[in-house]
Amino acid sequence: MKHTYYYITSLVALAGLSCSKSNSDPTPTPTPVEENLTAPVAGIYKLTKVSNRSGSAAVTGVGSLTIIAVDNTTAKITQTRSFTNTATKFESTIVSVQDEANKIAKDGTNYIIKTTTGLQWATISGTKISTTEKIGSPSEITLDTEYTKQ
Predict the structure, then answer these.
(1) Is pLDDT of 136 > 90?
(2) pLDDT tens by residue, 56-106
(3) What is the CA radius of gyration of the chain?
(4) Which of 16, 66, 101, 122 would disulfide-bridge 113, Cβ 3.0–4.6 Å?
(5) CA 148 distance to own-chain centroid
(6) Closest CA to 77 of 108, 128, 116
(7) Rounded to whole angstroms, how far apart are CA atoms 45 and 60?
(8) How far apart, in whole angstroms, are the C-alpha atoms of residue 130 and residue 132?
């Protein structure tokens, strides 16, 4: 009879432990804070360097690029630039859509500017923005341009 008593007591104890209340208050997972990518790059940039990729005709240029932060990853960008082929005196003025929405992303230590469809068109390294421009018709010239933050 003692064995039966110990056996039943053990079963009741095990049943009681298996039905114990568990912690129903899980620790909430903190929402990750999205890094602000536009604040470090917002500002006015001046066209400071123009290089002809083919090296044939010398090209000069003036212009500016303005970046206005909208949120952590979106910026309004307005770009105006004018290039002159010094050999032919051909002048090409290019004006972007004012306050055009663009996405800012991070690539290592650099930032990149993308269209809203994801096409990358500029790289920001420190205080410099590097882009590629195409001017001229019928013979097109590809230019590497650099803007410096003012």
Answers:
(1) no
(2) 778 999 999 999 999 999 999 999 999 998 888 889 999 999 999 999 999
(3) 31
(4) 122
(5) 18
(6) 116
(7) 17
(8) 7
Residue written as token pair 């909208």? 70
Long-range contacts of 87-90 (CB under 8 A, 24+ apart): 87/57, 87/58, 88/57, 90/135, 90/136
- The amino acid at 113: I
Q: Are 42 and 73 in contact (CB under 8 A)?
A: no
What is the helix (H) or strand (E) element at residue 89, kind and residue range?
Answer: none
Strand pairing category for 128-135 and 120-125:
antiparallel
- Per-residue tokens: 121: 């068109």
Tokens of 59: 């090209």
Q: 16: part of which helix (H) or strand (E)?
A: helix 2-18
Q: How many residues does the chain have?
A: 150
Chain segment 15-64, per-residue pLDDT in tens: 665 655 556 667 778 888 889 999 999 999 999 999 998 877 789 999 99
The DSSP string of 5-53 is HHHHHHHHHHHHHHTPPP---PPPPPPPPPP--STTT-EEEEEEEEEES
Distance of CA 98 to the CA centre of its chain: 19
